[in-house]
Structure to design on (166 residues):
């Protein structure tokens, strides 16, 4: 039978190129959802994608949702809501996570500046060394330039970041 492309259920779409993996097949956490054929390209271990999703704690309840057919280059970092500190208090210091009695000062989730789920549409191209901040929505077909920090929603089919053209 003639092949009609790689299986979306394989870790590596091309078994000879281990720097590219289909992310959904490397995910172990329930709060990360990735569509078919979305890949991560990293010579230092594409299958370690989850290490690039930081401050992502189940008790907060936020999700990272990435659509189908996305291309994500090495150096990506998705900063999730757990990185946010209280801003309506006397201090932004997270005393509660330091233990030794300070854990009694645990803030309610309603006191934290939660931004919601981070959502990446279908067919999005994210260049290398990009940081995506919590709660950002990137629309279908968008392109995010290398070395960008995404701090606000990006409309579908737009280009975001510094693009240098000769």
């Amino acid at each position: 039978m003639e092949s009609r492309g790689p299986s979306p259920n394989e870790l590596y779409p091309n078994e000879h190129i281990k720097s590219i993996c289909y992310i959904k097949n490397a995910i172990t956490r329930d709060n990360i959802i990735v569509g078919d054929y979305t890949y991560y390209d990293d010579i230092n271990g594409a299958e370690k994608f989850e290490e690039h999703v930081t401050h992502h704690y189940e008790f907060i309840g936020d999700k990272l949702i990435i659509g189908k057919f996305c291309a994500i280059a090495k150096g990506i970092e998705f900063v999730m809501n757990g990185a946010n500190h209280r801003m309506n208090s006397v201090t932004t210091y997270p005393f509660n996570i330091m233990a030794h009695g300070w854990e009694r000062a645990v803030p309610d989730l309603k006191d934290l500046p939660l931004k919601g789920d981070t959502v990446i549409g279908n067919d999005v191209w994210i260049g290398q060394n990009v940081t995506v901040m919590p709660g950002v929505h990137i629309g279908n077909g968008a392109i995010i330039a290398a070395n960008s920090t995404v701090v606000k929603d990006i409309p579908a089919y737009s280009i975001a970041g510094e693009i240098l053209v000769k």
Observations:
- The first strand starts at residue 20 and ends at 22.
- The domain at 20-160 is CATH 2.160.10.10 (UDP N-Acetylglucosamine Acyltransferase; domain 1).
- The mean pLDDT is 90.
